[in-house]
Amino acid sequence: MTVTRCALRGAGMTNLDPADAMLGLPHGRYSLGLRRLAVLEAARGSYDTALEAIDRSCGGRVAGKRQVEDLVRAAAVDVAAFYTARTADPAPAGTLLVISADQKGIVMRPGHLRGATAKAAAKARHAFRTRLSTGEKPCRKRMATLAVVHDAEPAIRRPHDIIAPPGGRTGHRTVRKGPVARAKWLTASVREDAETVIAAALDQAEARDPEHHRTLSGTGRRRHPPAGVHPD
Question: Does this model's pTM top 0.85?
Fold first, then answer.
């Protein structure tokens, strides 16, 4: 659907569209619904599959893959500011404070490698043309770091609740469910190093528990053990 409307114009000024402002229409030619569809489909897979899904749903309203990339990039500009302004609700001392981090190597273009990796790639001399020999590194990857902080109520489980016993489950014993994450905070970066990403996660955990009364998940220890409890 194509809609034409009148704009307020002035010498040396950009056009003003009062009706667009009243309706909350976005800048550019793509609607909010199409932008949302682009983000959802891009999160599920590649940009190629996202473009195919948009074409099926909207009849080819997006010019190409570069436009889908621009829509997803524009939708993510407020993510960092949103998480910075967002404060998790206070949790009682019995609620677990969970911190986790992971890394994944991503193949990069030569111009986007970090300094040490770029130098190693320039010095690399491969023994074979079609494959790497034992111990050789391709020197083409950059580590992406993901960190998460969330709250969870303790969930006491038995060994057979997590791992099925030999012969499989009989169904006589009800499997107890694991903990459920609440107030999840996520951060990830391929531009920043691991120390920066993990420091941001620790800052988030510190903001949630500045007095260090809560239990850190995964270690079985407290940063400040309660009276009468040995830290080990």
Answer: no
